[in-house]
Amino acid sequence: MYRDANCGQVLVTCLVNGVPARLLMDTGATHTVLDKRFADEVLKVEYVDTSEMQIQGNAAEIPGLTLGELQAGGAQLRGMAFLVMSLDGVNSMQSVPIDGILGMDAMRYLPFVMDFANNRYSWGSFREMEGFVPLEGELDEGGRLMAKVKSGKRELVLLLDTGSSVTTMLPEQWEPGLAASHRTPVADISGRRMIEVGVGHEGRLQLGKTLFSAEITPQLLPPEADPGLLGIDALQSLALVHKPDASGRSRFYVGAVKPRQPKPAPETADAESAAPSAGGQGSGAEP
Fold first, then answer.
1. Which of 33, 34, 63, 251 is the most exposed place for a label (fewest CB within 10 A)?
2. DSSP 8-state symbol, 166
3. 250, 143 Cβ separation under 8 angstroms
């Protein structure tokens, strides 16, 4: 796992039908999506007839549907239903194009750690969870967490969305208030577009009784822009852990982790012993 250099989302290489695929880990996505170009040109998938099915979503494009196999985090998910659609809008913001989006239909079964504080991302979980607290909230029908947080004394419900680089909410929900407004590009599965956004004064969200987010300047959006996302900007000083319970139900935890100490540089030979001999061969230790 690693982060995209442009947007900062966490990416992972999984196997789709045995083929490596670069997927964006998106807790805000209900379904796993394959980019149409990747599905058609690389995987050469066969599509399911959806003429008599009702497929809903927030994309302007009606997605295709294909069945296949996903290998991720040591798990093998057979008969996986993949939505197929163009991800050109998302890819316009990425440093390197992605092949798809890993949604909660797959991730709900997989434990993982996103340690933003130390820039470490992996499948599995921490052995010790001291200092971590559950991220409270309710799971929606798609398995996504609607997290209960606070801005000052104001209680908010925000969708935990690791696919979003920024936290968004209504202007009246952010206690520090509006600092400025401007037009900015946004991109999602519907494409890329310009919207008018407000930018909040710097502040923090309360994620637990004694746990607070990183300092953020959230986007303050009107209702028609569908705000209400807890983005990865709020998690920069923390670690996010996903540990499904025994029934397979998602459980998210957040906590502060100690920064990793850099390893000391190896000792080098002194200048005299490292100087080359007359024959041109170094007499010091080998690198």
1. 251
2. S
3. yes
Rounded Cα distance between 251 and 241, Å, is 8
Mean pLDDT, 10 residues at a time, over the chain (287 residues)?
Answer: 91 97 97 97 93 57 91 94 94 92 95 94 87 94 96 96 96 96 71 80 95 96 87 96 89 86 52 38 34
Residue 203 and residue 167: Cα distance in Å, rounded?
12
Amino acid at 272: E
Element (H, E) at 36: helix 36-37
- Closest by alpha carbon to 176, among 203, 156, 154? 203
Closest CA to 135 of 212, 228, 72, 197: 212
Tokens of 227: 């705000």
**Sign (positive/negative) of CA torsion 171, 172, 175, 176?**
positive
Rounded Cα distance, 46 and 7, in Å? 32
- Residues 221, 205, 161, 200, Cα dihedral to 10°: 30
Q: Torsion angle, CA of 37/39/40/45, rounded to 10 degrees? A: -170
Which pLDDT belongs to residue 189? 61
What's at 186, amino acid-wise? V
For residue 180, what are the CA distances in angstroms to 145, 207, 227?
30, 25, 17
Computed from CA positions of residues 163, 113, 137, 173, in that sequence, does the dihedral angle turn out positive or negative? negative
Tell me which H or E stretch contains 273.
helix 271-274
Region of residue 143 (phi > 0: left; psi between -120 and 50: alpha; otherwise: beta)? left
Give the three-state DSSP class for 232.
Answer: helix
First to last CA, the chain: 30
